[in-house]
Amino acid sequence: MLLEVRDLTTAYQGLVAIHGISLDVKAGEIVAVAGANGAGKSTLLKTIAGAERSRSGTVTFDGRRIEGEPGHLITKAGIAYVPENRRLFPRLSVRDNLRLGSYLFRGKADREEPLTGVFKLFPRLEERLPQRAETLSGGEQQMLAISRALMTRPRLLMLDEPSQGIAPKLVDEIFDAVVAIREAGTTVLIVEQRLSEVLAIADRGYVLQTGRVVITGSAQEILDHTDVRKAYLGV
Amino acid sequence: MTAQIFLQIVASGLLMGLIYALIAVGLSLIFGLMDVVNFAHGEFMMLAMYAVFGAVVIIGIDPLMAMPLAVAALFVVGATAYLGVVQHAMRAKANIGMVQIFATFGLAVLIRGVSQFLFTSDYRNVPAERNLLGGKTIELGGVFLPLPQLVGAGISVLAFVGLWLLITRTDFGKALEATREDAGAVALVGIDKNRVFTLGWGLGASLVGLAGAILAIFYYIHPDVAAPFALIAYVTVALGGFGSVFGALVAGIMVGLAEALTATILPPALKSVGIYALYLGVLFIRPKGLFGSL
């Protein structure tokens, strides 16, 4: 098991945002976390990434307990996190944003090599290298955020609502990229509101409601679930 | 005004201006990095002056040789100030701006008080017999250039070039820029923001330490010596734009020129009037400073 979350509880500004969540991600999987606004999806990723402190429960990554560790050490351990608002460095160039992604590596080869993969994934970023990150469109910014995360050479990539606020045409491109990232050997944990689209590319999924896991199973099982069909797919 | 007097004003203003710029740049750097105004900035400079004085008197080296020592010592002082005081002040749950102001202001009072206790309030000078540059002046076409200021201005230019290279050409420079853009996001690429803040405070203090080491060559030393310089540094930073390194350089030179001009045309007691008039003038027209992005 690459990632094991057990009974994780996090309070956010005094309110319990996630309540005893358990979740597994195996190496090589795409695992989706779905649920309505306020279900605790983002808090779950934030807590795993070390941006939010858990109140109780454990997070084990590759056999090592990581809950409570600061964010930069979790990145170093091999978990890259793309938050909902992307958190690019807006006034730095696309090139500098990418270069900062490989900050943890020292050798030139180590730092340049992931770039090839990134440009193959998102060719348009290569054309934008000298531009400031803030001048990119929403979709391009999302591509850059994912690319910056990939530059850290993660074993697990966590994406929070990558489709949010970007043009429909680019949404497909992003989802295709997620599939390609997994093909290239990086495991993906993805939070999405677009349930049917994300389950089309995911192996397994978890549906959250008010901070708890209410449904879990293979992507197909979740799609077939009566409650899901009623609540999310409108059928 | 004759051409010679004009040239003298430009030369004196430029030399002192470059030193003012070096005093101010560390303050601007730290502010740009984390939005904290270091009210102990002047006290850092005073400590550097005593470090040079101590090295000259105790080890018996020339003040120029003592500069690297003062710079290294101030790096430690700056990093310690962050780790020991500022870091904790930033964890305040409410009124964080006020807490930061009082924390660094309190640090300033502490440093000054301890210095008065340890060094007494006596005015001191680096002993002339061990001061290669002290009191020497060269004349160039009727313009007098005091050697300590001339060398000090040269060192300041080198320091600015070095700082520029550090910021634009190194990974640490990129980490500094990324942290000033969004300190909460650097963990996403594996950077420890606390480490960047610590090094940033060390760097900012080193720069004002270098300035203090230059001043020690030609200025008297006592625990309150930094007050007028600190005031000029705040004006310089506000004028150049808070957080802007290039702004600190340009504003420092402008302040130096304004002072040299006022000192020539007004009675000596009023020599600072020009600085503050310039400051008010610029802030009326451009409140964020010349190169500020606030």
From TrEMBL, chain A:
Task: Write the record's keywords in alphabetical order, separated by commas.
Answer: Amino-acid transport, ATP-binding, Nucleotide-binding, Transport
Top-level taxonomic group: Bacteria
UniProt cross-references to PROSITE patterns, sorted A to Z: ABC_TRANSPORTER_1, ABC_TRANSPORTER_2
Show the InterPro entries listed in the entry. Answer: AAA+_ATPase, ABC_transporter-like_ATP-bd, ABC_transporter-like_CS, BCAA_Transport_ATP-bd_LivF, P-loop_NTPase
A single GO molecular-function term is:
branched-chain amino acid transmembrane transporter activity
Residue span(s) of domain ABC transporter: 3-235
- In the UniProt record, the signal sequence range is none
What biological-process GO terms show up in the record?
L-amino acid transport
What family, per the record?
Belongs to the ABC transporter superfamily.
Q: What is this protein called?
A: Amino acid/amide ABC transporter ATP-binding protein 2 (HAAT family)
Q: From which lineage does this chain's organism come?
A: Bacteria, Pseudomonadati, Pseudomonadota, Alphaproteobacteria, Hyphomicrobiales
TrEMBL record, chain B:
Which controlled-vocabulary keywords does the entry list?
A: Amino-acid transport, Cell membrane, Membrane, Transmembrane, Transmembrane helix, Transport
Query: Is the Phosphoprotein keyword given for this protein?
Result: no
Organism equals Enterovirga rhinocerotis
Task: Give the UniProt record's GO annotations in the biological process aspect.
Answer: amino acid transport
Q: Which GO terms describe its molecular function?
A: transmembrane transporter activity
What family classification does the UniProt entry report for this protein? Belongs to the binding-protein-dependent transport system permease family. LivHM subfamily.
The name this protein carries in UniProt is: Amino acid/amide ABC transporter membrane protein 1 (HAAT family)
Q: Name one GO cellular component term.
A: plasma membrane
Chief subcellular location equals membrane
